[in-house]
């Protein structure tokens, strides 16, 4: 081993300087003895990207924050060493440490919009980030240079804009510009693209790659998305429960995972999930839901007074009984508005929605009651869609009592048990509050609540996007199983093509409120016809290993 | 990720005060409840505990506290202890009745506004603005000097002066709750407005209601005493804490016991109310992250 290493060292070009070295980093809650991060070692050299991948609670974000000296109050570094640009930061007193970090390390956060001050123009914020004592004319030049560096074309307009006037992708570029203002040698990027659309995500990641190459930056890239890490990182550390379980060159770790956890994580990637084919449902005369020429616009208060945002611009759609239809599109494509109209949470400006041949607006009382029961909704956010005051049992009781007036009290209790069985939750969970459940468990409760009404159509708006990869995989399997068992029709809304591919037979691609492409899922995703779909498919991260 | 860390911190908090803390009103709340219970019991039992508050004894005028007159006597030789005990009755009745009316009215307006939106909400909001623009004490002086200060006008004035607090506090929260996805989920599950109000909205505003009620009650008690102090409250010779403080204030340097004891009774009752209110809020709140703006 040492012999081959020596010869390798002789041949290899001299290694670039170390931008960041972390040794035995331990992080814990103040006043508690147990640790949240147990002895993490990592090293980032200038000009390379090192990834940390893991699920929520793995300690990846805490590691990044500890490196940047940004741990929130109540969480502290317990031990180990953090060396930024050759200087150990933890030994320094607070002020010099902060100064050193400010000069040598830039941070990019997950969501660009809250990282910027909404009340200051971009120019002011960039000027603030520049080293103190830069003279005024130079500030203006440097600010423009920085924006040009991060690939912003219209520098002048951007400098004079407020953050809310810019798109998420542009804001993230500004945040990166701010991080680069003091020419750091190291960039810590914590989920830098998670809040962005796929196509924008690809652009921002390209920018980070480009900057790394041109400026010789070291990049510490933290992400839950294995695809992003696979595409962008030279070396990767897989974290789980506060420990690094596996690390090495990305191609080795992801190509031939040694640790059990890495293997599980890779198996949970949606595009790798093995799907059981559901048989083609017999074509029926009347589609279960048919949508014609649906239009909906919202008044939004923009930079220059009110304007109308067209969410849906004449959408036609048909869903057959038993079909699983995926609706994909980026944010602003109108997919959520469409879903909300279908379940009656929103009304259309014009056009019609027919349920089993009758227009929603022409329902009589019994038809409306039946429709209310037959069409159910699974929400995106499992945290805010459950009443924090009600136990799981009380939440499930609600639709049972409201929709099945005739049901006896004892039967309600039995139904709750069987619903919990169906979504694979233990029966004693009925006494738990949402705050005592994990995200995946909450989403199971959300699904059980939708099933409580005995629906035939389930509309699900990004039901797994807020969940960790492995949890996501299990929820998807649950949804697939429920569909087969109950013969449900799904209208499944997602930005994740892998998820749609796993669950849906057919897919509709929405862009700016109109359908640009539709067809069988495999056909559309493998041979996209419309340029937008092609771009969408090409932008999906992790194609290198999926 | 920040949400994740917030959750982490919350979880570490929750580890210390888990379910048990959520089910009780806490030591401070218990202390408040006990103190309030004592005040109520003593006040209710006043006729049996002490003598007649109007009985005069000209041989014992302005006596300092002594074993025969624990709180001393006033300028007519009336026993201060007796008067303080009897004065509690008017204070409590005049606090609880308008307090309840004001809080329930505020709650109803706020919840209806949040639920129905539009005109209902706008009217409630405008009414509150108008009410806030008029200083309560001025309103009270105007109304009471025209109509005379009997019980009903007094209650009306006190209600007018205090419903806005409950309304404002609950309205803000209710409007935030109504926008939560779990309310939409209830709609999809088939719940109408009534069911949403009963199952989701009321339980969620209940802790705020308790806080608002105790806050208004203590504000009303203070207001009533101020009116008594100005001679617009309960009329002499009936004992009233505010009026007693007012009467005793002039002799504070020579006969401190005239004003101090009714003042202490007032403070004790107000503090007890506030402690109890905080305790109840703690008991009925989730005290966790989950609803934005939920009271802790």
Automatic annotation (TrEMBL), chain A:
Record GO biological process: peptide transport; transmembrane transport
Classification via NCBIfam families: PRK10419.1, PRK11308.1
Protein name: ABC transporter ATP-binding protein
Secreted as UniProt keyword: no
Family per similarity comment: Belongs to the ABC transporter superfamily.
Pfam families found in the cross-reference section: ABC_tran (PF00005), oligo_HPY (PF08352)
Highest taxon, organism lineage: Bacteria
MF GO annotations: ATP binding; ATP hydrolysis activity
Key words, A-Z: ATP-binding, Nucleotide-binding, Transport
InterPro entries per UniProt: AAA+_ATPase, ABC_transp_ATP-bind, ABC_transporter-like_ATP-bd, ABC_transporter-like_CS, Oligopep_ABC_C, P-loop_NTPase
Transport found in the keyword field: yes
SUPFAM superfamilies xrefs: P-loop containing nucleoside triphosphate hydrolases
Residue span, ABC transporter domain: 22-266, 289-537
Provenance organism: Cellulomonas humilata
Automatic annotation (TrEMBL), chain B:
Compartments reported by the entry: Cell membrane
Membrane topology: Multi-pass membrane protein
TM helices/strands, residue ranges: 28-50, 91-115, 127-146, 152-170, 208-234, 254-276
Domain (ABC transmembrane type-1): residue spans on this chain: 88-277
UniProt key word Membrane: yes
InterPro entries, A to Z: BP-dependent_transpt_permease, MetI-like, MetI-like_sf
Any one GO cellular component localisation term in the record: plasma membrane
GO biological process, one term: transmembrane transport
Keyword field: Cell membrane, Membrane, Transmembrane, Transmembrane helix, Transport
Chief location bin: membrane
Similarity comment text for this entry: Belongs to the binding-protein-dependent transport system permease family.
Protein name from the UniProt record: ABC transporter permease
